[in-house]
Design a protein that fits this description.
It contains 10 helices and 14 strands. With about 280 residues, the chain is an alpha/beta fold. The strands form 2 sheets. Strands 5-4-3-2-1-12-13-14 form an 8-stranded mixed beta sheet, with helices on both faces. A 6-stranded mixed beta sheet has the order 8-7-6-9-11-10, covered by helices on one side. A hairpin with a 2-residue loop joins strand 10 and strand 11. Helix 2 runs parallel beside helix 10. It starts with 8 loop residues before the first strand and ends in a 9-residue tail after the last helix. The model has no long low-confidence stretch (mean pLDDT about 90).
């Protein structure tokens, strides 16, 4: 008998959530998601990653998955049909970057087929075990086409990102909203774009609502998704400030412990899968 009732949909973030610290899906997690599919659950992955990057990862689950990528700016069906796409206008991105940016900060524009960056960043590259979404070094001072899916900044110094966030919002708050997917990663999207909005589009297509979904996440780009789901669950490895922001939500095991799969096994699937 299932312990968590009325759940028909499983929604999960990727990095820090479904993926282990090596940025891969464990065999145990794969087995649990295959059992979810066998028992008729709808599966949605909602990530800040670009769709080309994310598709290479979720393909390893070997089950049908709806993909919400770039924090909601793209939606793809399980057969990889693009269902929704939104790009930031050239002038909006150009205005956002027209602020003082500390030289330690890596700047990235998510384009359709490449990500344009001002510097080579080994830490960012390590997030892709297979390089399906390739970087392109650019000089933003000489760039003509600033149109992008989203704007992304990375820096080991969180306070430098906070300062940059404030400067960009002072210029562009009428067009953009931000999220820290990690303390070291700052992202800007159009105000209309959010994981939760995109997930609702998927569920409406399939005849479900967010009240029938359980969702898993670890970053501030997951806040609306977690708070609007029937059951929102925060990863044990999530920043403490996220746990404090959503104090009513349960905190589960870390991604290093297969927290998502372990929770699904014990609370959603039949008991014998809890110790697989």
């Amino acid at each position: 008998m299932r312990k968590l009732k009325n759940i028909k949909v499983i929604v999960s973030d990727l990095d820090g959530t479904l993926l282990n610290p090596q940025h891969t899906i464990s065999d145990y997690t794969k087995s649990i998601f295959q059992e979810l599919h066998n028992q008729g659950y709808l599966i949605v992955v909602a990530t800040g990653r670009h769709h080309l990057d994310a598709m290479a990862i979720i393909d390893k689950l070997e089950v049908p998955v709806y993909l919400v990528s770039s924090n909601g700016a793209r939606i793809h069906s399980p057969n990889k049909e693009q269902l929704f796409a939104f790009n930031l206008d050239n002038d909006v991105v150009k205005a956002a970057l027209n602020v003082e940016i500390d030289p330690e900060i890596t700047v990235v524009l998510f384009k359709e087929n490449v990500w344009q960056t001002n510097k080579w960043n080994e830490k960012l590259n390590s997030f892709q075990t297979e390089l399906k979404y390739r970087p392109e070094l650019v000089d933003y001072k000489n760039l003509e086409d600033f149109g992008a899916i989203k704007i992304f900044f990375s820096c080991s110094d969180h306070e430098k990102l906070v300062k940059l966030k404030d400067a960009i919002l002072a210029n562009s708050s009428e067009h953009l909203h931000h999220a820290f997917s990690l303390p070291t990663c700052l992202e800007f999207m159009d105000k209309s774009i959010d994981k939760a909005v995109a997930i609702e589009q998927v569920l409406e297509r399939e005849g479900f609502t967010l009240s029938e979904a359980v969702s898993f996440g670890d970053g501030f780009n997951d806040v609306q998704m977690l708070s609007s789901s029937g059951k929102g669950l925060i990863m044990g490895n999530a920043p403490s400030i996220l746990k404090e922001t959503l104090p009513d939500l349960e905190v589960i095991k870390t991604n290093a412990e297969d927290g998502v799969a372990r929770y699904i096994a014990s609370k959603i699937l039949d008991k014998e899968f809890a110790t697989s």
